[in-house]
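Q: Structure tokens for this one, please.
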Amino acid sequence: MNPILKNLDLIDLISERHGALRKISENLWNENSEIYITNSEWYIMSRITGGQPTIAHVSKNVDITRQATHKFIKKLESKGLVEVKNVKNNNKEKCIRLTPLGEECYRKNEALKASLEEKIAKKIGNEQVEFLKMILKSDWGL
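A: Here is the predicted structure, written as tokens:
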């Protein structure tokens, strides 16, 4: 057992594992792609995929400041991963969508995460992974 994890409570254990997995995932992508994408950018892309939400909606639904969200969206736009457009009949609102390149990167990253999940399952067992997913998806009554 990793000595760092030995005395952590549930919340800190989840946080440590989440941070480690996100770092591994980010590094795997960036080592194998010419387009550098940060975890925050992936997080924003995950909120956009499959739709055309407004920037305001994305900002409200990510745990990132509004200013930082706008900064990340501009970076994603400069990389050709998202497209920002005006909302019909509303000059103040802008909507955002993944470009075909953004969709392709997102699909490739989903496959990369699936392979990472497979590695975890090989180490701890498929049943344990499924059990963990079930626990994490369940209503904790909080």
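A few notes: Residues 20-136 form a domain with the Arc Repressor Mutant, subunit A fold (CATH 1.10.10.10). The CA atoms of residues 109 and 120 lie 17 Å apart.
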